[in-house]
């Protein structure tokens, strides 16, 4: 049966790989992203996909998506939260001053806006449209939520998704809806580290931290998300699946 799959951050990286995976199985995919051109061009490369540009860090943006879903699809079978990113790459914003405190305020606000608000607001906008039973809600966490990272604000924003997802799992479970998270390690091809990418020396260090001896790919994460959305994973909820080659365990 064809499912309706809504993927935020679907224009690039993990979100786009996930869109291709669901579309390959015949599901209808709606890609959501801030950048109209990026998300539109991505949809053109994914069979049968559609796109909508919206800022999910605002109530207006999330409600815009909800209205489109109501009009065009009715219900959502799978909701994948791929939107997010590195607050260090966001444009400077006025934060009422300059110096370390103002910098911290901007950095922490940017990370929680990108990684928490986008997921929470879209979920709240669509929660009454989730297929019942059988709906799936999937969040992208990070290995940083467990181990920290060079950006404490980013790690904290990803960790903040966990209690929200666990509470949703409790609330929605009685309706036959599951809620899970996936925590990738370093994944190539996402643009997370900016146009220059990861320095080669650091890349080798991260590969050496895994038990598999390799860097993750968007496809690794997409396949896990696809399985979590399947009937086979119907009794798995309130969990965080680690997709990082064992790196979260340390060497």
From TrEMBL:
<protein>
    <submittedName>
        <fullName>SDR family oxidoreductase</fullName>
    </submittedName>
</protein>
<dbReference type="InterPro" id="IPR052178">
    <property type="entry name" value="Sec_Metab_Biosynth_SDR"/>
</dbReference>
<keyword id="KW-0521">NADP</keyword>
<dbReference type="InterPro" id="IPR002347">
    <property type="entry name" value="SDR_fam"/>
</dbReference>
<dbReference type="Pfam" id="PF13561">
    <property type="entry name" value="adh_short_C2"/>
</dbReference>
<comment type="similarity">
    <text>Belongs to the short-chain dehydrogenases/reductases (SDR) family.</text>
</comment>
<feature type="domain" description="Ketoreductase">
    <location>
        <begin position="3"/>
        <end position="190"/>
    </location>
</feature>
<dbReference type="InterPro" id="IPR020904">
    <property type="entry name" value="Sc_DH/Rdtase_CS"/>
</dbReference>
<dbReference type="InterPro" id="IPR057326">
    <property type="entry name" value="KR_dom"/>
</dbReference>
<dbReference type="InterPro" id="IPR036291">
    <property type="entry name" value="NAD(P)-bd_dom_sf"/>
</dbReference>
<dbReference type="GO" id="GO:0016491">
    <property type="term" value="F:oxidoreductase activity"/>
</dbReference>
<keyword id="KW-0560">Oxidoreductase</keyword>
């Amino acid at each position: 049966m064809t499912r309706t799959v809504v993927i935020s951050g679907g224009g690039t990286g993990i979100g786009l790989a996930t869109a291709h995976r669901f579309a390959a199985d015949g599901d209808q995919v709606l890609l959501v992203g801030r950048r109209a051109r990026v998300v539109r061009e991505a949809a053109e490369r994914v069979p049968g996909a559609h796109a909508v540009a919206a800022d999910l860090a605002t109530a207006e943006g999330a409600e815009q998506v909800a209205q489109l879903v109501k009009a065009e699809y009715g219900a959502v079978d799978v909701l994948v939260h791929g939107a997010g990113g590195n607050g260090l790459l966001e444009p400077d914003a006025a934060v009422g001053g300059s110096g370390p405190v103002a910098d911290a305020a901007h950095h922490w606000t940017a990370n929680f806006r990108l990684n928490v608000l986008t997921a929470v607001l879209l979920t709240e906008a669509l929660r009454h449209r989730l297929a019942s039973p059988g709906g799936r809600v999937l969040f992208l966490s990070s290995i940083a939520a467990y181990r920290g990272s060079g950006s404490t604000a980013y790690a904290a924003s990803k960790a903040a998704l966990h209690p929200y997802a666990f509470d949703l799992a409790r609330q929605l479970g009685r309706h036959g809806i599951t809620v899970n998270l996936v925590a990738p390690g370093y994944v190539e091809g996402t643009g997370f580290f900016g146009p220059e990418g990861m320095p080669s020396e650091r890349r080798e260090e991260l590969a050496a931290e895994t038990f598999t001896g390799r860097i993750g790919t968007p496809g690794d994460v997409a396949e896990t998300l696809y399985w979590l959305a399947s009937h086979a994973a119907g009794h798995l909820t309130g969990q965080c699946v680690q997709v990082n080659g064992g790196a979260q365990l340390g060497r």
